[in-house]
Every structure is written in structure tokens, then in C-alpha cells.
Amino acid sequence: MKILVAEDDRATRLILSRALGSWGYDVIAVSDGEEAWQVLSREKMRLLVSDWEMPRLEGPDLCRRIRQASMAYVYALLLTTHKDSDRIVEGLDAGADDFITKPFNPAELRARLGVGRRILDLQDELALKVDELERANGQLAKIAATDPLMNIGNRRSFELAIGRVSQKAAREESRYGVLMIDIDHFKQVNDRYGHAMGDRVLSAVAAALANAKGPSDEVFRYGGEELVMISPGQTAASLHDLGERLREVVASLRVACQDGEAIRVTASLGVAVAPAGSARWEAVVEYADQALYASKNAGRNRVTSIPR
Predict the structure, then answer these.
(1) What residue ranges do the domains of the chain occupy?
(2) Tens digit of pLDDT per residue, the chain (308 long)?
(3) CATH fold of 148-306, please?
(4) Rounded to an integer, what distance in angstroms lies between the CA atom of residue 182 and that of residue 227?
(5) Per-residue CA distances from 257 to 151, 198, 199, 261 (Å)
(6) Is 49 exposed, middle or buried (0-12, 13-18, 19+ CB in 10 A)?
């Protein structure tokens, strides 16, 4: 482990460096606190042995500067001739972790540095466990927000996403569109080919829509065979064009069965654009849903827009 020695007395600095080197430390030795700070600023050091009184920057001021900086924790041990409690408290308040009096006892110094290393090891272990916990929580959050069959967002994540998009649109006085997408006659697919093939069709439709959407669009499973897409920055005309493109993507799908037959499906879409600056996303979803039912009542495999 690297260790930084900051000591203005040349003889003491040499004694410290030789002792620490013989104990297996990789020693960097400097003659004042300011030089020590420069080393800490450019190199990752975990242990510091610093004299209290030094030119340019004293040991407590160096500790205080370390604690105020954004860097990995440095275990700081101050060498001092001070023995009164007020001075010890001053050093602790400045950020020192431990003290050893001068002239120092090598065995005591080695033992105190061993304590520091154990503390640093515990900190590293704790940081590793925190990172693992954060990764696990992130994975759990992703699982909780994803529909496992379609591998897209679920209903809960849709509500969070559209709330975020609508708030942004309200701040920026911009528009966004909602597209409700329903696979036509999906019950017949399940009845004829079985639920396993029905699941493959759902997965294929979701993947096709995810590949066809724009970079800022988001697609979710709304429920059953119904999907929903959020598309920011749309006009009524551009949203209708997007709906037509998605309808054609679904109609062009071919999902192969084991016997070689290809399942073909179509989709009905209802689209609605939010008024500029509106944060009431529930109304936009309701309009898109009404438009979807209009598409289904008109014969399916079509796009219906609600003028806004």
C-alpha cells in the first residue's frame, strides 16, 4: 500500500521512510504540507503520516483540506510533540484519525498504521457491498418496470413515464402524442394456435414496435394484447403518420409455427396529441382509447386520430 510522509525535518523524514519501506509500504516522502497536498491531488493515496508543524501548510490544515475534497478516504496520522488534550481535540476536529508523539516508537507507529489499514479495508468492503446492493436494486427496479413476456415497459412504468413526459411538456409548452395499439382478433390466435404461440406473437409485435419507434418514443404493454406508445414533439398529422407506419410494421410480421405455417396479425390504433403545455395526461390517454375503439368499430387494421 502506498503511504505519504509529510515531514519537514530531513532526518525524521529519512527514518520514517526507511522504517515504512522495511514494513512493505510504498513510500512517497515530501517536506511540507503543500507539497503533500499536490501529491494527494494527483495520486491515489490511502495512508498519510504528517508532521503537525510544517512550513506553508501545517498538518491539521492539510487534514482539513483532505476532508473537504472529493477523493477516496485518506487515513491521516499526525506526528506531534503536543500532548495536551486541547491540541489533540484540535487535530481531531481538523480531520486527523490518529496521533503519535515525537520522537515516535517504531513499534507503536507500525501498530497504529495497522489499525488504519484495517479501517480502510473495512471501508473498501462496505463500499463494495453498497455497490453490489445498488446494482441489485437497479436490476430489481428494471424487473419491476418491465413486462417479462414482451420485454417492454409495463403499465406501472407507463404511468411514471407519461407523468414525466407530460410535466416536461407543460414546462416547455410543447406537445406529445399517445398511441393505443390493439392486436386484432388476438383471441382467435390463442384459440387456433394455443397460448404458447399467442405469447410468441405478442413478443414479436412488441419487438417490431420497439424497433420501429423513434429515439425519444417509449412503448409499453398496457394490458392483454394492448400496447401504448408515448411520442414527444408530435403534431396531429405527424402522429397519424407514425401510427400508419406502426400499423404497416405489424401487418408485415410473419410469426412462424412449428409446422411451417406463418401467423399474420394486424393492429388497430387510436392516436391523440396533447394540447401544448398540458399536464393532464389522463385525458390524452382517454382520447387515444376512444380513437382506438373507433378504429375497431370501423373494421380494424386502421388508425383513427382524435383531433386536438
Answers:
(1) 2-128, 148-306
(2) 899 999 999 999 999 999 999 999 999 999 999 999 999 999 989 999 999 999 889 999 999 999 998 888 999 999 988 777 888 888 889 999 998 888 889 999 999 999 999 999 999 999 899 999 999 988 888 888 899 999 999 999 999 999 999 999 999 989 999 999 999 999 999 999 999 999 999 999 999 999 999 999 999 999 999 999 999 999 999 999 999 999 999 999 999 987 778 999 999 999 999 988 776 899 999 999 999 999 999 999 999 997 64
(3) Alpha-Beta Plaits (3.30.70)
(4) 6
(5) 21, 11, 12, 5
(6) buried
Q: Does domain 2-128 have CATH number 3.30.457.10?
A: no
Q: What is the DSSP string of 235-267?
A: -HHHHHHHHHHHHHHHHT--EE-TTS-EE---E
Q: How far apart are CA 63 and CA 50, in angstroms?
A: 9
DSSP E strands, 174-259: 176-183, 218-223, 226-232, 255-256
The set of cell numbers assigned to 28 is 512517497
Grid cell, residue 292, equals: 382506438
Question: How many residues belong to the chain?
Answer: 308
Residue 90 designated active-site: no
Q: Which residue in 35, 58, 225, 226 is the catalytic one?
A: 225
Rounded Cα distance, 36 and 57, in Å: 9
